[in-house]
Structures are given as C-alpha cells and as structure tokens.
Amino acid sequence: MQKKQLSPLSILWICNLILFIATFISGPSLSFLKSSVLEYNNISSDPFDGAILPIAYIPDWSKAENINKGRLFDSFEISDFLPIPEYDTELLADVSLKTAAATILHYTYPVVYMGSYRGNYIEYNGSHDAVDIRAPLGTPVMAIANGVVVKVKNIDTGDGKYVIIRHDNVDMNGEKDTLYSGYGHLSDIFAVEGTKIQRGEVLGKVGMTGITTTPHLHFQIDKSNAPFHMYWPYTFREASDLGLDFFGAINVGLGKENAMRYTVHPMNFIKDHPVLSSAPVEISNNSIPLSEPIKSPLVVSSQVVADTTTPSANVVETVVSKIDIPVVEEIVQKSELATPEEPISTVQETIATPFINASNFISDNVHIFSDIPVDSTFYSATKYLKEAGVVNGYADGGFHPADKITRSETILLYDRLFKKENSTIEINLPFIDILPSDEIAPALTRAFMRGIVAKNNYFRPNDSLTRAEAITLLIRTSGIPLDTSKTSLFDDVKINSSHMVYINTFAKYLGVTGTNFQPNTDITRGELAKILYIFNQR
Predict the structure, then answer these.
(1) Beta strand 216-223 with 175-189: parallel, antiparallel or unpaired?
(2) Which one of 102, 159, 413, 488 is most buried, counting C-beta atoms within 10 A?
(3) Averaged over 265-279, what is the pLDDT?
(4) Which one, of 226, 207, 113, 122, lies nearest residue 159 by Cα?
(5) In Å, how far are 105, 202, 208, 243 from 81, measured between CA atoms?
(6) Rounded-to-integer distance, Cα 472 and Cα 204, Å
(7) Of 272, 300, 330, which residue constitutes the final position of a domain?
(8) What is the 3-state secondary structure (H, E, C) of 170-188?
(9) Domain shared by 94 and 27, yes or no
(10) Cα Rg for the chain, rounded, in angstroms?
C-alpha cells in the first residue's frame, strides 16, 4: 500500500506549527536554533579580563550651554568634559540634593536599573531592565568587554539602532556563564555582526533612534537564558490590554519579575568585574579611563604657574629621569636603590616579568608583590609601604611600578603616610567630581582643610600626576619648612614656577643633586614609592 505524500502546503503549515510551539515554550529546541543560527558560536570571544563603562566622559551638565540635546559631541571642547560620575544608588535616590555634583549625577543617569519614568531615581520601582546614560549626540560608545558581535540592527524604526555583544566564560559567582551586553538608541554603528570585538573598541555613537525623548545610551546586560536579546519584559499587546502606554507599563512594573530573572544589573556588573591591569585595588576610581585622561594642572595653591619648559634631549643625572632616581651616594646605599649607571632597559625588563605566577601568588614576609622580585630596585620601597599599611597593591598581587599614578592615589598615599589624626571628619568639598561616598573623600577633605589642595570646581581624580605636582603635594603634606631661595636648583625648573620652591625644598632636604628635574614628566608608582621610602627614612 502506497503511503500518502504530504503536499508542499501541508509541509509549510507543519513547519509553522513547530516554530509556533517552540516560540511559546522557549525550550531547548529554540535555544539550539537561536545559538546555532544567530549567535555565531563558531566564533569564540577573547578571554574575559574585566569590564569598563560604555561611556567614559560626559559634559559638565551643571553648565546650561551643555544640556542642549541637539548639540553634537564634536562641538564640545575637551575642557567641557568630566569623567562619568559613579553610579551611586543612594545619592541618585536623594532628589532633595541640589549640589552641582547631584545635578550632574541625576542628569547622567535619568533612568536607573529596574526603575521607572517617574523621575525618582529609585531602583526596583519599575521594570526598566537597563540603565539609561545621557550623553551628547555622537558620543563614542565602547564595548564593555571582549566579545563577539551577535546582532546589529541598523534601522531607525521600532526600538532604534542597537548592537548586541556576547561575552563568553564570564565569572559569575564562581561559575562561568555567557552574558549579552546591549547598546540601544545609537545614531551610527561601526560594529560588524559576526566578528570579534575588544574591550574599549568603539562600536557606535549615542543617538535618539527608536522610542526616546533625549540623546542617551540604553545599556543593559542579559543572562544567557533570556528568550531573546535585548530582552524586554513585556509586549506592546500586553501593555495595550491593560490600557497602558510604553512609559506607563514601565511605571507600574509590568513584567518586573521576568526583567529581574533574565537581566543583570549592568552597573554592578562593571563594578564587580574591574580591569585588573588599570585600577589598583586600594583605590576606588569613579571611572576607568580608556585612554590617556583629560589633563589639567592639579591646583595646589591659589596661584599656579604651569611649567612649560621642555627638557633638553641630552638629559643627564636627573632626579627622576629614569625609573631609578639618581641621588647622592649615601642615600643610594641607605635605601638599596640601583646605581645611576644601571641601564633603564634592565629595570623595565624586571618590571614586565613577574617572578611568581600571579594566580598562585600569596604574599608573605619576603614575597610582598608578585611583580617585585627581592632583587628589584623597588623591593625595599614597596615592602616598606606595604608594611606601613600605605599600599595594598592590585588584585593580581602586583604593585605595577611602571604604571602612572593618579591624583586620587597620590592623595591617599600621602594621607596614610602623614595623617596626624584618625577622627571622623565632615565631608565638605568644593569639587563636583568627588562624591562624599568616594574613598578619597575623607583624605581629600583633610588636604583641602589644611590648604594642601586649593578650592576648584574639579579635582579630576583619575588624571595622572607630573613629578612637579607630586613633589609639591609631598612637601605641602609633610609640613617641612620651605626653602625660600630665589634661584632654581635645576635648569628645567623656571624661577617663576609655583613648583620651584617645593622642588628646591625637596632637593635640599634629601641632598638630591642633578642638572634637570623633568617637572612635566608623569610620575610612576615605582618612582613615587622610592621617593616616599627615602623621604620617610630621612
């Protein structure tokens, strides 16, 4: 007996029925279909090694001219920008705060994770499963971590232009998982679907595509079990059936349970997965810069005259022209520093090659930091600072002596080394880029109250520090009587420089000699560690 053959129309209906069932069950079949066809599982992302914020800098929103939503990113000056403020739920929820810092914070994060459109900045008050980050049109948007671009939507309609990146083997509470970061409302997209992308790589620009009333980035992170990406907790039909529009549905928390089930708090994820090679554990940075920070002189007195002299090419015997600081012979012997004749290439090689596997490193009385061997020129200095409770190092066990030191790190180091009292103080700072909850706030308050750091609108905690700035702060913090001579001890330090008196004081106090000081060169962690070690031994 011949079997009855199915018609093409019947086969089509059967296929449609299977897809219909799979869609509503969201079972293994759909997961397999989604991963094998849509997610480029034949491409593995580079190893996950930390995450950064998708936007690094925002304009100073406290200035009226900066909040014009039609203004393009390219129309701003560098001086208009600030490091993006820390996402602080307590400060965000306090709408009574009217300080410039609070204004900038609220303007930067108009809608919080699991928040609403009521303007109260309270998490879990709605079902918005992302964080909205306000930024000018055209602001570069960066991949938060290494991954694979699995979806690019490059049309303006619906939910606008967006990019989805898959991140493989992410440590989540001790287990490896796959996450998906989503970047919505873009104006331009540079990411290419089906290709790898690196942390910090620009994937597009901030826009106003889709349902939005102001330029911003819709930033969310989905779990691997989300039915689709970017996950949204309700459909328009579900909202319409309840008589709700798009905003009203979020405000009443429609789909809240699913939003919490299928997404990850994006800002907490960034905070919990720092890039270990760029931020020391003992310092809480407001943001992680992706490139050289926006630079401006650190104000250490009411009148600052910047040093603009460029050191000559034939610099010899500088105070800190090498990683090893040439000083008088008795100080070299006392602190076990390398002699000035030691090649700089040898020192750099020592820095770059850890003597212990960082993953197995355990600090003890001899092995202080994983990248500081006992024969390192930095050993005595870093051991001293560690034992004095001044530094803790990085999460990988290293000290990273070749890294530039930031303003916030330097203030904390000096405060811990010279602090004369441990009493609780009231945080009252003029800097709108420092929050009271920041780790640096108490130390910076003490420095401000003592006149070590002068009043200014911005402190710029993540900027690097020049040698002149570091020494000026050191002398002011230590309280050593100033040498008031009118002649500079170094050829490249101008007589009319506000730093000259402090550099002269430092040199005479330690008996340092040399031709040039290179005041405008950024100081490293290793250099400053040696200086503090010698200084405190004196």
Answers:
(1) antiparallel
(2) 413
(3) 80
(4) 207
(5) 14, 18, 21, 42
(6) 42
(7) 272
(8) EEECCEEEEEEEEEEEEEE
(9) no
(10) 28
The band of 2, judged by pLDDT with boundaries at 50, 70 and 90, is: low
CA 530 – CA 538 distance, rounded (Å): 12
- Judge if the upstream peptide bond of residue 230 is cis by omega within 30 degrees of 0: yes
Domain boundary residue among 244, 272, 300?
Answer: 272
Q: Is residue 534 part of a domain?
A: no
Helix (H) or strand (E) run with residue 510 in it? helix 500-510
Q: Does 3 fall in a domain?
A: no
Mean pLDDT of 388-404: 81
Domain encompassing residue 27: 14-38
Q: What is the mean pLDDT of residues 391-414?
A: 84
Q: Is the domain of 76 the same as that of 140?
A: yes
Quick check: is 524 in a domain?
no
- Decide if 186 is inside a domain: yes
Strand-strand pairing, 131-134 and 81-83: unpaired
Report the predicted TM-score, pTM, of the whole model to 2 decimal places: 0.49
CB 86 within 8 A of CB 56: no
Q: What is the DSSP letter of 43?
A: S
Alpha helices in 353-435 (DSSP H): 379-387, 407-418
> How far, rounded to the nearest angstrom, does the alpha carbon of residue 462 sit from its chain's CA centroid?
9
Phi and psi angles of residue 376, each rounded to the nearest 5 degrees, phi first? -70, 150
pLDDT tens digits, 422-472: 556 777 788 877 888 788 888 888 888 888 888 877 788 888 888 998 999
The tokens for 521 are 């060169």
Shared domain check, 30 and 159: no
Judge residue 422's burial from the number of C-beta atoms within 10 Å of its C-beta, 0-12 exposed, 13-18 middle, 19 or more buried.
exposed
For 339-369, letters b (16+ CB in 10 Å) and e give ebeeeeeebeebbeebebeeeebeeeeebbb
Closest CA to 354 of 366, 364, 369, 343: 369
The full DSSP string for 129-176 is: -SEEEE--BT-EEE-SSSEEEEEEE--SSTT-EEEEEEEEEEEETTEE
Which tokens go with 395? 């999460």
Nearest to 269 by CA among 179, 155, 151, 366: 179
How far apart CA 2 and CA 521 sit, in angstroms, is 89
Look-up: residue for tokens 């086969």? 11
H or E element at residue 467: helix 467-478
Domain count, the chain: 2
